[in-house]
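Protocol step 4 of 6: structure prediction from sequence.
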Amino acid sequence: MGLGTESTTVLQLLIASPENRLVELDFSHNPIKDEGVVNILKAFKSNPNDNIQVIKLENCFMGSQGAVTFSAYLRQTNFTNSLVPVQVLSLRRNFIGNVGLETLCFTLKTNSHLRYLDLSNNNISGGTGAMIALADVLKNNKTLKVLYLQGNK
């Protein structure tokens, strides 16, 4: 069962607090869906002391819209004065699909902080556009060191 989308509204208030000093957030195995992902990332965006380095949202029923939101967040932290931008992102066992992968790849081409990305079991089918986008990331991104894609189609 787990914590649902409603719980992310409360979490959003805690994360947005200037007193927040979180460096890692693991909200895995909670059915927060895309809406919950949006709530959590809005909070990090609004916190001037955003120090989050590790985000794990595994098996949270997130779809491609959640990946779009993450892409925007990673773009923001790459080009702002975030003290320590996200270095580890685990989205395994969600449903981002090819659209989510392509959106993340667009950002990851220029992201200079993310080192570990787990997209295992995400309903990625290996369509031409998604694979070209991924190949482009692997060619241009100099910081991504670990990429997991097991269990996709």
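Step 5 (inspection) to follow. The longest strand covers residues 24-26.
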